[in-house]
Amino acid sequence: MPRFNLNWLYMLIAVMLLGLYLTNEGGGTSKNVSYDEFQQYVRNGYVNKVVAYDDNSVEAYIKAQHVKDVFQQDSNKVGRNPVITTDAPARESLETFLQAERQEEHFDGSVNYPKKSNYWNAILWNILPFVFLIGIWIFFMRRMSGGGAGGAGGVFNVGKSKAQLFEKDGAVKVTFKDVAGLAEAKQEVEEIVEFLKEPQKYTDLGGKIPKGALLVGPPGTGKTLLAKAVAGEANVPFFSLSGSDFVEMFVGVGASRVRDLFRQAKEKSPCIIFIDEIDAVGRARGKAPAMGGNDERENTLNQLLTEMDGFGSNSGIIILAATNRVDVLDKALLRAGRFDRQIHVDLPDLNERKEVFGVHLRPIKIDDTVDIDLLSRQTPGFSGADIANVCNEAALIAARHGKKFVGKQDFLDAVDRIIGGLEKKTKITTEAERRTIAQHEAGHAGLSWLLEHANPLIKVTIVPRGRALGAAWYLPEERQITTKEQMLDEMCATLGGRAAEELFAGKISTGAMNDLERVTKQAHGMIAYLGMSDRLPNLCYYSNEEYAFSKPYSEKTAELIDEEVKRMINEQYDRAKRILSEHKEQHAQLTQLLIEKEVIFTEDVERIFGKRPWASRSEEIMAAKEKKENPVVPIENLPQVEDSSLPQEKLDEEKDNE
After folding, report:
1. What secondary structure does DSSP assign to 371-410, as a single string?
2. What does the radius of gyration of the chain's CA atoms come to, in whole angstroms?
3. Which end of the chain, N or C, is more open, meaning fewer C-beta atoms within 10 Å of its C-beta?
4. What pLDDT, on a 0 to 100 scale, did the predictor assign at position 510?
């Protein structure tokens, strides 16, 4: 069907006017008169024809020789059939009047009694439904074509690429200055931008720029922000879209959009294509649970692989992609020639967190009490998005209390709010429940202080937060590797709450559910994945198969793993009770202090248990930095490069989440 045009409306109006003209008996001047005047014209013999309608309206056609007597104009100025109109009292009275005038020979014309025709109603009832259907059809065609006029193709625009194009000097104002930290990642991305600006510098030496770069890292670390910075820095067109934009309910649409994307990119070459969350379309083929059906996603991935490194030339097109699930991507997508580089965007360390805080504190009005070094140490494991949330939450807290500037306490409250949740001081707890909660949290705090490799304590509270009745904040060491002894100490400290309940209250409660869940997962990971068991040494049963229907070990091995998990947890539980028994008086003092103050800090624990005999690795580094000396770090604590596929990341993630 042809596209809607305004000329259709003009043609419709012309046809209507033509119809009205034809139904007016050739046209002519019309004059409305009273019924008395009409009767007088009939008596004078001026009327040639009378048309009386069923609504008592009357039309009387005037004889040509009497036109001037009625209209005071010549016949050539009033048309061929001049007519006067009036309203009769009733059709019977009109008929009686005309019969009387006919007998007196004043009227010798014809009389008609037709039904009144409403041309506008006829037009509306016959044409309006078609106009309505045409409007509905045009509306749906525009919606299916992506909104607006949609360009040529109508509904077939569903196969067009949905990539958002940022031209040179466009609206993207993010630059590399807005990306704090990520020095290594920025260096590699800046090299890509520099190649697009000065390709001769590299081609003179025979080098070739990588065809693609994959940004890999946990959520919130700045992968998409880094791509925005590339769009702001590169003086070339930048296509941005998500992996889910290729997914559609229609068959073949994903592959069609991939072809259209690269067609547009070739026209704008040199340019950059950024695909966010590429795992939506780049999952490994053959692992989907669609049991043999024709998977549309696989067809889209095949087309993407062909376009990235097929027979066609894509010179001048660089592809950036981001994902936090690189383990599920297809191996063909990661090979050299497609994504030549994998740029790891990890969680920021201490110095990088300082830089991130510096960026997000620019628009916030802060006072002199804010210490960026303290905030950086208080937020281990926080991503860039988490730090941005901390700054925003601190500003909201300050505004809620009517302050003109955001202070140190506002930031600390924001960190507590994000980690533990909102305080619920109105939640009613009995005295027995408060004592049980205090004993539980004191068990965690005491063991974390007494164990060498446990995380140092920052703050303990028995004020309910979120879904927790009590909470403890720790300062985890930012390790590159973790030893078995460190993991066992952390497990023992985690079980300290349940051990304290059983040891000092004589009964256990439901408050240790989260602790038990964590230590169970940690023990299973140590035995089944990391080979840290005496009966199953040096074995790893970890598999990244997303849809695995069988375990990579036998039933006998599964029983052995269960036994080892139980043994490891029970050993650490007994160890926790033994250590707490040796420090029974200190635990009682800490419990009573918690009941009285509800919130205690590191200084309170140090006053009861004494100075912690083991300095953490971060404390050693900070002390050496203050003395401007190189830190002396034991060889076992030196950072080493690990395979990112090891499940240690999952264990670290569980600790960070807690």
Report:
1. -HHHHHHH-TT--HHHHHHHHHHHHHHHHHTT-SSB-HHH
2. 43
3. N
4. 87
Mean pLDDT across the stretch 619-637? 44
Check if the beta carbon of residue 356 is closer than 8 Å to that of residue 181. Answer: yes
- The pair of three-digit structure tokens given for residue 93, joined into one six-digit string: 């009275």
Residue 459, C-beta contacts closer than 8 angstroms, at least 6 positions apart: 416, 472, 473, 599, 600, 601, 602
Cβ–Cβ < 8 Å for 439, 505:
yes
Instruction: Just list the catalytic residues.
Output: 441
- Predicted local distance difference test score (pLDDT) of residue 143: 65
Q: Provide the 8-state DSSP code for 277.
A: S
Look at the pTM and tell me if it is higher than 0.85. no
Cα–Cα distance, 209 to 236 (Å, whole number): 15
The answer on pLDDT for 488 being more than 60 is: yes
Percent residues over pLDDT 70 in the chain: 78
285, 328 in Cβ contact below 8 A?
no
Give residue for tokens 């059939």.
81
Question: In the chain, what is the greatest distance between 2 CA atoms, to the nearest angstrom?
Answer: 139
**Which tokens is 559 given?**
């029983």
User: Please, which pLDDT band fits residue 548 given cuts at 50, 70 and 90?
Assistant: low
Ranges of H-type helices in 23-82: 35-43, 67-71
Q: How far apart are CA 622 and CA 458, in angstroms?
A: 17
291 band by pLDDT with thresholds 50, 70 and 90: very low
Residue 159 has pLDDT above 90, yes or no: no
Spatial neighbors of 146 by CB under 8 A, at least 6 apart, are 157, 158, 160, 162
Count other Cβ atoms within 10 Å, centred on residue 20.
13
